[in-house]
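During the first year of the project, the team set up a workflow for recording each protein of interest as an amino acid sequence followed immediately by a discrete structure-token representation. This format lets reviewers and collaborators read both layers of information side by side without switching files. As required by the reporting guidelines, we include two representative entries from the current panel. The first entry is reproduced here exactly as it appears in our internal archive.
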Amino acid sequence: MSTPRSLPSPPSPPSPPSLPSQSSPPSEPSPPGLDGSAIRIGALVPLTRPGWVEAGQHLLAGLELAVRDVNDAGGIAGTPLELLVRDTAADPQKAVAAVDELDRLGVAALAGEYHSVVARAAATRADALGLPFLCSSAVLDALTEQPTDWVARLAPPQSRGWQLYADFLLNSGHSQIAVATQSSIYWASGLTILRDYLTPRGGTVTELDLRALTPTAVCDELANNRTTALLLLVGHPDPAVPLVKAIRHDPRLAELLIGAPAGQPEFSEWATLLGTDGAAIPFLRYLPEHLTPLGTQVDTALRKLLPEPPSFVAFEGYDTIAVLAEILRTHGPTRTRIATSWPHLEVEGTRARITFTRTPSIPTYQWPTPPIQVADRDPADPTSFRTLHTT
């Protein structure tokens, strides 16, 4: 299997990262691995409810496969990587406690997390501790309140992906949009992005709050208005699955497009619970038209580890370790060196070459060009996907 590559290191040692919220960097444990012990990476993953367990399983499979590949290739200059996995269960407080524990255990860096609100809590705590965190999957634009060098992210920011989704809706003839919502920073952010983007382009966005409306009441609201599309800004499986079933079986709404920009239909549980009712529901996924040669090899390996084809989240997990492994090879396991290495990297990932830059309005380092698709499950075969729109 090919290994990631990087650009040459900068000619002079990087300066310590800036810490806006701190007057001086926190004390740092002795760099791991210098005595022959493993270099530890902390992994934050949702593995129990109410977390999205299937997403967590895919993320963990990618992380673990990449660690195995690094170690099979000789580790980091002969020192193995060790993954310390902690279940966040979609609970921000549990994630913060896990970050504190992993910090005490001397991990060189943190990896992972799928849920945006949880990743935000973990990133804020990692920033305060001076612990590098490469976030795999969460998309909320502001993972921290202030700019930081300690946190970087692979997934695209929510604003970029959801604006692409809004373009898809407009190009498909949908401008009268309803959104079914739940209370959450993530859903509120998505609603704001959609409104800010669609309204100047002649669209309307009507919110239907599921705290006050049953699925039947939502169907009545949709039937009584000129809405042509309903977007699911709600959790899975509940209330997303009951709402989809109610709409699909309401003859008044036969022409209504159901959309899920947050990606609920990506995982096999969606098809299992909904069958053909869950098809033709466009969602965002972060895959290219073609995987890289490394990605093709990883895809083959992941299919042996997972009970269904790997999702984009599994590839995000693998890419996370590929990036961190290259940092460790070229900059060593010292936390401050890791935190200052983000803008100097160029790594061959499973989906494209990965670099990190500062992006306006994004407080963390960001991969600026991750692939984005709008896809859906094929009504003729709900286990297969169709690509509807791509970057």
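The second entry, processed by the same pipeline in the following quarter, appears below.
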Amino acid sequence: MGTNTLVKYPSVRPLAIYASDPNTARGRAIEQRSASERSPFQRDKDRIIHSSAFRRLKGKTQVFVAHEGDYYRTRLTHSLEVSQIARSIARVLGLDEDLAECLALAHDLGHPPFGHSGEYALAACMKPYGGFDHNAQTLRIVTHLEGRYAEFDGLNLTWETLEGIAKHNGPLITKETGVKDLPWAMTAIPNWEALELSTFAGPEAQVAALADDIAYNNHDLDDGLSAGLFSVEDVCEVPFVGEMFADVRRRYPDISESRLIHEAVRDMIGYMVADVLEETRRRLKAANPQSANEIRNLDHAVVAFSDDFRAKEKPLRDFLFQNMYKHYKVNRMMSTAGRVVRELFELFIVEPELLPKHLFAQTDGPETSVTARVVCDHIAGMTDMFAISEHKKLYQPAGYF
């Protein structure tokens, strides 16, 4: 990648020696002149926010389908909450806040409609054609599908942002897995090998990954309570969670239930952030990295929860799995959502002429790999309500003609 660092970017706060420094960023695939008022990572963050894929997150499921109510989290509100947590952690650790926030905002761009149910359905449909993975789809969006700029496809993001998107959850290539297990969309990226998929991501990407864990654990609990899938009394039976609720009640004996929930969730987020900071400082002290690249080449993540908290967290994850993600109301909703995705794919791939004209022009006949990927991109970009509307027009046309 070519350099784009023609100016020096003063940081609001001094960066730690192991932070990703915008002044030594590895550059972009298409070289561009630097903007003196914004660092490369600030520009990446701004491009993400202005992208079409980011706007569509407002209509994509977190857990509840978007039309279920306007209180529940969508992928957009979830991404904003993740970015706030990531920015806060990065600031305390002396990391580049813009890069951490950028990666948090981008991490769910590739999710199809209907959350994980939509992803499972699309992955099954795409199995004969190279598979589907939302992280790989995010990279496809920012390197190819976004069409906003005259000089390039995608967003032409920096190497640091691309590698953070690709492997914020850890290395993608190991001796056990190898390149053969990478989803097609990952290896379709120009010069994908340069992302060094066998190493860990930089520290800001690791922060974004932990911020995601913190956000969805707490906010899914909040949404589940609001939806009536379980009660405060139920969650108070869960170790750690029950302690947090009991502590709020001790401090505020007459608190209303809604405020009790918000205070307890707030305290749990604070507890998790404090644990990440303490464990990360311990790991940084032990490893003593002198650069972000040294962090990438360690044999373990440096940004992490402690083992003690991981043990405390397991009962919460188990509770949410059994009482929320597997609740019969959610199961029904997700089963229907999966059928919508599957049936749209099955129809479009055998009758690509039903696609919008500009997409049909990109296909090369029924049931080919090229057509499957066009159909996959189209469905993955849909919001929940658009997918439902398209399915209704194609499968339930009464009243449409």
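For the second entry, the following points were noted during internal review. The chain has a mean pLDDT of 91. Residues 160 and 373 are 27 Å apart (CA to CA). Both points are flagged for discussion at the upcoming steering committee meeting.
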